[in-house]
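Weekly structure sync, notes
Attendees: PL (lead), two postdocs, one rotation student
Agenda item 3: pending single-chain targets
PL asked that the sequence for the first pending target be pasted directly into the notes so everyone works from the same version. It is reproduced below exactly as submitted, 243 residues in total.
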Amino acid sequence: MADLVAVRNASRRADIPGHENALILSDDAARTTAIACGATADKLGDAQEILIPGRPFVRGIIRHIGHSIIQAMNCFIIAALSADGCIAKDDKHSPFNWTSKEDKKRFIEFTKKAGVVVMGSSTYATLPGALKERVNIVYSRSKKFEGAEVTAKEPAELLTELEGRGFKEVAICGGSHIYTMFMKAKVVDRLFLTIEPILFGKGVNLFNEDLLFHMNLVSTSQAENGALLLEYAVDYKGVGKGK
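Predicted structure, written out during the meeting:
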């Protein structure tokens, strides 16, 4: 049995191997909380929001194995930037021509592990074709793209759908509008950014709207060419949903 429920004010993380991002509740507590949030006993399978302090917009699944485990869906942004903060010179500029081999290796490794990549139509157009061994999802309201699924869903709705299909992670791969949309929806857990030793002077920024989010540096490494590979966790404390 696997049900999606709404959980508010949960605070304790489950210390269970393989479920590091989970919260743990007794079956009765999970059922009571779900009903209190508007999910009736016979409708727990409906997609609902899980609101967790510090992770304000996460969907999850209850699995009855003695306790109810709510497994978080991981969503991360992955991008390469010039030293002056641009992801490209223009919409047609492909990152494959100027990023380090370490960045390319990380991109392939992380996106294949996730199994699904999400991007805008302009970003998809810079690729030589669909990314192999990954489900390619492109945002578009009218066009269709060979080798890719097309969507116009809101970020939270898309992630809920993908979780229902069995995915545990989603890689958001650009461009600027898509990065901004997912950050504003507060569904992004981590950002994997590579700062390449190159200057564009002007170009496309990582985000295309005003944003304010705090981040915690998780890890850093340096590529052979001097590029910095950074991993940040988004810190949502004090930034509640809807604020």
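Discussion points:
- The domain at 74-235 is CATH 3.40.430.10 (Dihydrofolate Reductase, subunit A).
- The chain has two domains: 2-70, 74-235.
Action: rotation student to compare against the earlier draft before next sync.
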